[in-house]
Amino acid sequence: MDEDDGALLRLVGAGDRRAFDVLYARHAPWLVLRLRRRCRDRELAQELLQETFLTVWRAAAGYRGDGAAVHWLWAVALRRLIDTRRRALARPQSAGPVPEPVLAWSPSAEEEALAGTYDADLERALHSLSPELRAVLQATVLDGLTVREAAVVLGVPEGTVKTRAMRARRELREALS
């Protein structure tokens, strides 16, 4: 199929299994990589990928076509990750220790693709930030998460996300001046 992603999503919304297979083959590789960067548990990333495409199958009819389909797919995957994190945090502690998904910062696909296009000073300034500050910038700037969503994904309070975002901006300004 030579259809663009938006057309594929509309076909999937109409129940076209072949369009779904094409969409999956086209996007599963990069989606699982991005999920693995947010969650180092390989099995959990695969589960999230499957949940993402199950959601796509069920919700594709609601895709309005406003914006790129890849952004919509990533938003679906990110919501699955956030939901998983919330469920892990909501489990009662009396049932014994429950292994939490391991969420950690690592460069996103966008960061790797753009690494060569950064001004050298900006790139040095970004790399001088602590991993915690870079993770907040990645979540709020690159992934476009709200403070509340970033807090859930990163497993820290909302106030911590706000504080780290302010610190990251301040440190970047100082490093670039």
UniProtKB/TrEMBL annotation:
It comes from Micromonospora sonchi. This is RNA polymerase sigma24 factor. SUPFAM superfamilies: Sigma2 domain of RNA polymerase sigma factors (SSF88946), Sigma3 and sigma4 domains of RNA polymerase sigma factors (SSF88659). Signal peptide: none annotated. The keyword Transcription regulation applies. Belongs to the sigma-70 factor family. ECF subfamily. The lineage of its organism: Bacteria, Bacillati, Actinomycetota, Actinomycetes, Micromonosporales. Residues 23-88 form the RNA polymerase sigma-70 region domain. GO terms for biological process: DNA-templated transcription initiation. It holds the Pfam family Sigma70_r2.
